[in-house]
């Protein structure tokens, strides 16, 4: 873990993230976090106050906001295959950047719910964006009439599945096909399936 240019807060968050992914929230102590971050346990409490606050900060630090409002709309050209490829690559790379936080979301779902951390907000925003996109494409006559919420959920699930396959690569890849090729093929197949 590289920490030389990080603030004390960042060191604590990085150490806590690694430990929670490896050991789980319950088994990770503030003493462990302090030792791994190379700071005193008092520094951990000074910056966060509690272990719960560290978990909340970890979930906030990893941006779960897909780059929908940061230029993504402007990149759409209303060509189904192009746009689905753009959206699939965005979701896949977003998931890769947030891999540890996603693992924590799975591993610590009960704690996140108990701490009232809203883990549905950001995927819901992506779903709403995709429904909007499919509605617009239908209005332009570029896709078949369908339940656009179901299309959005299936598109998100396909892309999340690619990310899960990538995480399984630690055991060795299940295919010689590159993730880029899989994303392109998936976007083309999805587009083909909903075009008139």
From TrEMBL:
DNA-binding stretch(es), residue numbering of this chain: 29-48
Keyword DNA-binding: yes
Keywords, in A-Z order: DNA-binding
Pfam families listed in its UniProt record: TetR_N
Ranges for domain HTH tetR-type: 6-66
Keyword DNA-binding in record: yes
InterPro entries: Homeodomain-like_sf, HTH-type_TetR-like_transc_reg, HTH_TetR
PANTHER family in alphabetical order: HTH-TYPE TRANSCRIPTIONAL REGULATOR PKSA, HTH-TYPE TRANSCRIPTIONAL REGULATOR RUTR
Protein name: HTH tetR-type domain-containing protein
């Amino acid at each position: 873990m590289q920490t030389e240019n990080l603030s004390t807060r960042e060191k604590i968050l990085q150490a806590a993230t690694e430990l929670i992914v490896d050991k789980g929230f319950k088994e990770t102590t503030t003493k462990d976090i302090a030792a791994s971050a190379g700071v005193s346990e008092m520094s951990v409490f000074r910056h966060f106050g509690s272990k719960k606050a560290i978990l909340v900060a970890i979930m906030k630090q990893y941006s779960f906001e897909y780059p929908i409002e940061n230029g993504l709309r402007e990149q759409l050209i209303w060509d189904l295959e192009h746009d689905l490829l753009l959206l699939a690559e965005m979701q896949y790379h977003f998931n890769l950047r947030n891999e540890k936080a996603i693992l924590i979301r799975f591993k610590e779902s009960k704690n996140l719910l108990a701490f009232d951390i809203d883990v549905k907000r950001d995927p819901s925003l992506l779903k709403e964006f995709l429904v909007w996109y499919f509605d617009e494409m239908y209005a332009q006559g570029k896709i078949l009439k369908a339940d656009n919420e179901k299309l959005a959920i299936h598109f998100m699930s396909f892309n999340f599945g690619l990310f899960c396959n990538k995480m399984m690569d630690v055991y060795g890849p299940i295919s010689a096909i590159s993730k880029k090729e899989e994303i392109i093929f998936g976007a083309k197949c999805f587009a083909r399936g909903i075009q008139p």
